[in-house]
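sanity check this fold:
=====
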Amino acid sequence: MSEIETKKKARILLTLDCTRNCKLCKNKSKILSEAIVLEHLADPILEDYDEIILSGGDLASIPYALFRALLSFRDKRCYIDLIRITDDLETIMKFRLIYGITFYVHNPLREEEVFSIPKVTKYIERGWLPGPNKLLFEYGNGGRNNPYFSEYCKFFNTTSSYKMTALQECKIPTNEDLFLLSNQ
């Protein structure tokens, strides 16, 4: 049995575009050279995966592509990586196609990221994101001193379905296979 057959999680980079310039961004690292390139999301290689993690740059910037991807994997547990939630993403969440979210808190926080807190909270409290859900934050340049950071801490420390973690390095977990959609 090959290594790809033993892993049950597929991380698919839908886009590399992002307005952030994070030091720890996995999309800028050498791991991209190790990604398996997909021509389309219906590739048979993805059939054996139990869980799909949709990631990339800023998924909020490609809501329709994200929705199409979620629909194509509706028979699997789908997780998404987000840095913000837009009105389009809120609409997508109402379809309940997302199992869990990893929400990245950046430093410095932008206003739109702060306003994402109650949006994420609403869907967790309604049980629409059964999880596990995660909050990852970067310390760089005094992340804990950020005026909005205490609001994040207050919510995420009182919500049991979230795991709050300081991001020391960003790498693909060993139990995941990395895929890159060919239009990138």
In short: Strands lie at 9-15, 36-38, 51-56, 77-82, 100-105, 133-138, 162-167, 176-181. Residues 3-181 form one domain.
